[in-house]
Write a structure and sequence with these properties.
Strand order of the largest sheet: 1-2
Order of helices and strands: HHHHHHHHHHHHHHHHEEHHH
Strand content: under 5%
Radius of gyration: 22 Å
Number of strands: 2
Distance between the termini: 33 Å
Number of helices: 19
């Protein structure tokens, strides 16, 4: 007996919900990575561990996300993007459940590493959108998907702060576990599997080499301030990265089916968006770090407002609203002027936001407006980056290429965290016996972030503006599947 065909209205409902469901997953990913921040001051007491051990709850998520994003992206291109997306969402849900069930810091760190694997949700979803949507809808959907990183980060902080203030801290992870499970089920129901695949065998050696190199690099950057930049472990990790990553690069160039197509990634149409992603990630993350610390600084500092973590989160909430509202606007700009122009405009707006922060950093409304201006620039930049990548790579490499782009953002955020901490630590004054950053230190950090945003703007303008060759034809010349070619021409 044959299977009962699905009613047309049910198929239509699934098609209409594909974009919202994928966006929901991206927001969940960012929320999951952010919610632990309000807990950090209290976790040493709650878990009976040291502050250094607790800091690994952030570091483990960062490292796992950086390593797994390009790996899962490549796996999605080869074995099915929906299948790997469900795996990433499953890692998010599993990690949340484990965090909710334990107070042992070692298990919490392992669970947070599992949650870090969900960072691949965004590049996988962007690739699915390219495969499934008609060209006229792709730009706005990709812009929304890319903006979910900032939307979720802005929502996660106040949400977590409210839960922590009024409930047991484990309830926060039960909430993310329930939401992650809902996202998993909705994705399984609403998101179709793309027929576009990349043939060949998975490059295990390339994945292991990239993992080793990134762990050395990002661990040194993230822990350098705590361990000491001149300490043996940090210098050893940097030395390891200097040795491993060039060796990995050389090996990838000699591999027939590499994890990352470095010849493609080295071209200006792909390399410059990757560089700009690193710079934009730096400027974006500095906004959240500096604003949160500035708002919570003691009144005795002469500039601080001494807000609670809940009030601070609510002040950052407009950033998420801005990114949600402006993502379709940025898509229209990309359609009219091209994503290269949108990316450059985003960098310039971010720099303008930091200029506002330098001019006035004492009034609450100015701080909120300045942060929102930076978020506006971030929306334009983040929405344009995946569009540039999608136009520059073959259809069967979209998930892995966007995974590398997200990796570059992550590296930029890590560098931003280290740079902001280094600047603020070097410019402090004593307030009631406690060393706090000076206003001049904040201004210097704003100047640094604004300068990086301007460099991102200049880099965006250097991206070749000529139309990309038709991806379907390039796919055929590279030996891509007939399905991929047919789908791209749809």
């Amino acid at each position: 007996m044959g299977s009962v065909p699905e009613p047309g209205d049910a198929r239509g409902l699934r098609a209409r919900l594909t974009v919202p469901v994928l966006a929901f997953g991206g927001i969940l990913m960012a929320v999951t990575q952010t919610v632990v921040v309000p807990l950090l001051p209290d976790l040493p007491r709650l878990t009976g561990s040291s502050a250094g051990a607790v800091s690994w709850l952030v570091t483990a998520t960062l490292l796992a996300g950086a390593v797994l994003t390009p790996v899962l992206g490549r796996a999605g291109d080869m074995y099915g993007k929906r299948r790997v997306l469900l795996l990433a969402l499953g890692l998010m849900a599993t990690g949340s459940v484990l965090c909710a069930l334990t107070s042992d810091v070692r298990l919490l760190i392992a669970a947070r590493a599992l949650q870090g694997g969900s960072a691949a949700v965004v590049p996988l979803s962007i690739s699915i959108l390219r495969d499934e949507l008609p060209p006229r809808r792709t730009a706005s959907a990709v812009a929304l998907m890319s903006s979910t990183v900032g939307i979720g980060a802005a929502l996660g902080l106040p949400l977590a702060a409210l839960i922590v203030q009024y409930a047991d801290w484990h309830a926060m992870f039960w909430a993310t576990a329930a939401l992650s499970t809902l996202g998993l089920l909705l994705t399984r129901w609403a998101v179709p599997e793309s027929p576009v695949r990349s043939a060949g065998r998975f490059d295990i050696r390339g994945a292991l080499g990239l993992t080793a190199g990134l762990v050395c690099l990002l661990l040194a950057v993230s822990q350098g301030g705590q361990w000491g930049w001149g300490s043996g472990p940090v210098l050893g990790l940097f030395a390891g990265a200097v040795v491993i990553l060039p060796l990995w690069w050389h090996t990838q160039l000699r591999t027939e089916q590499p994890l990352v197509d470095l010849r493609l990634a080295s071209g200006r149409r792909v390399a410059l968006p990757h560089v700009t992603a690193l710079l934009a990630g730096f400027a974006f993350y500095a906004n959240s770090l500096l604003t949160a610390q500035l708002l919570q600084a003691p009144v005795g500092s002469g500039y601080g407002l001494e807000l609670s973590i809940v009030a601070t989160g609510l002040c950052l909430l407009p950033n998420g609203v801005v990114m949600l509202v402006l993502s379709p606007v940025s898509a229209r700009v990309s359609t009219a002027r091209g994503p290269r122009v949108t990316l450059a405009v985003g960098g310039a707006i971010m720099a303008l936001g930091y200029l506002v922060r330098i001019v006035e950093s004492r009034e609450l409304w100015v701080i909120v407006v300045g942060a929102a201006v930076v978020a506006t620039g971030t929306t334009f930049a983040y929405s344009a980056l995946p569009t540039l990548i999608l136009r520059a790579v073959p259809v069967e490499q979209t998930a892995s290429a966007n995974g590398v782009n997200v990796l570059m953002r992550t590296i930029g955020q890590s560098l931003s965290s280290a740079a902001v901490a280094a600047v603020l630590v070097r410019h402090t004054s004593s307030v009631d016996g406690v060393q706090v950053p000076t206003l001049g230190g904040y201004h210097l950090a704003f100047t640094l972030a604004g300068t990086v945003a301007l460099i991102a703007c200049a880099t965006a303008l250097a991206i070749p503006s000529e139309p990309a060759p038709e991806t379907a034809r390039r796919t055929t010349r590279r030996g891509g599947s007939a399905e991929g070619t047919a789908l791209e021409g749809r």
